[in-house]
Write a structure and sequence with these properties.
The protein has 336 residues and is an alpha/beta fold. Helices cover 39% and strands 18% of the residues. The chain has two domains: 206 residues, 3-Layer(aba) Sandwich (D-Maltodextrin-Binding Protein, domain 2); 97 residues, D-Maltodextrin-Binding Protein, domain 2 (3-Layer(aba) Sandwich), CATH 3.40.190. Helix 4 links the parallel strand 6 and strand 7. Helix 9 packs across helix 13.
Length: 336
């Protein structure tokens, strides 16, 4: 009887020990991204000594996607946990994919903030196109129908009386191929975003006709999101991740670290340092990243309203209903 009691006690102790060990294991945070250094997690770039919680309360699994729309499918299938959605795909994830539990938790980056970079729409320097109206009957290119920059392009043309399919032809082209299709005169206008818009060859042959800021003003380009059940279950790990992310952002944004930042990005992307030297994490050359991780919800609402006006959304979308900024607010207090 005593032996059975001791055996049971030992077994219970072992079980508790195993449970405690499992409870102490870091939470795997699976995060999608498109562009390193923009919506991509800075933690993934490999700079050591900046994070406090990586490997302790969480481990990051950064997964690359060609664009934000495929992330909707991955999130719905439970294949990723954290998603940096463009303003153009956020409402689609809720309305079309029926993810009513999606929550905005932090800023990724913003376009059109005074003094910072804004995406460009470019034509050849010797092009006869000098005003928006000159695009009538021409071929323009964006990366994908309904993408954030695509919305901005359509809005600008509509403001100047040009309607898609009636007054111009819009084709889809990957950002890395924009320069080539413009040089070959397969299109008359391209969408140029960082880092591709910094390409010296492109700057030599092309000029900016208008910017995204000209089209839609300030835009909350990318917001970090997750589903409410995941956030409730893993609040501590998510706050720790956001704290580490803000600490990384502060270091990467410090001018004294610029040369090292360029080397890190060049090594990670396998692209030459010259592609990043003039603009990466500089005020005039890069997008605005809120230092406290707080998104501009008013700008986001305006951007989504423009999206609906173009017919990409069936219903109105109340941004604040889907925001929970308590995570990043707590993280920002710690990251000071």
């Amino acid at each position: 009887m005593v032996d059975r009691f001791i055996a049971g006690f030992v077994a219970a102790g072992l079980a508790l020990g195993i449970s405690a060990a499992h409870a102490a294991e870091p939470v795997k945070l699976r995060m999608g991204y498109v562009v390193a250094g923009a919506d991509g997690p800075l933690i993934a770039l490999g700079k050591e000594g900046l994070t406090k919680h990586q490997g302790q309360s969480y481990v990051l699994d950064a997964q690359h996607f060609a664009g934000t729309p495929p992330m909707i499918t991955a999130l719905a299938a439970g294949e990723i946990d954290l998603v940096p959605f463009a303003y153009s795909t956020l409402a689609l994830a809720v309305q079309n994919a029926k993810m009513d539990d999606l929550r905005i938790i932090a800023d990724s980056f913003q376009d059109g903030v005074e003094g910072y970079y804004t995406n460009e729409f470019m034509v050849l320097k010797d092009s006869p196109i000098h005003k928006i109206e000159d695009l009538k009957g021409k071929i323009v290119s964006s990366n994908a129908a309904g993408a954030a920059v695509d919305i901005a392009l359509r809005v600008m043309l509509k403001k100047h009386g040009l309607e898609d399919k009636k007054d111009y032809t819009l084709i889809e082209t990957g950002f890395p191929n924009m320069k080539a299709v413009l040089a070959d005169k397969k299109v008359d206008l391209i969408t140029a975003v960082r880092p591709f818009s910094a390409d010296a060859g492109l700057r030599d042959m092309a000029r900016t006709l208008f910017t995204q800021k000209d089209a839609i003003g300030r835009s909350q380009m990318i917001v970090l999101t997750a589903r409410a059940p995941f956030l409730a279950k893993n609040r501590a790990a998510v706050v720790d991740f956001l704290e580490d992310s803000l600490r990384e952002l502060h270091w990467y944004s410090d001018p004294k670290n610029h040369d090292e930042v360029v080397k890190i990005m060049s090594a990670y992307t396998k692209a030459p340092p010259a592609l990043f030297q003039s603009w990466l994490f500089t005020k005039s050359g890069d997008f605005f990243h809120d230092p406290d991780g707080k998104p501009d919800l008013d700008a986001l609402q305006s951007n989504i309203n423009e999206q609906k006006a173009l017919g990409f959304l069936k219903e109105d979308f109340d941004v604040k209903k889907y925001a929970d900024l308590s995570f990043v607010a707590e993280a920002a207090k710690r990251a000071q």
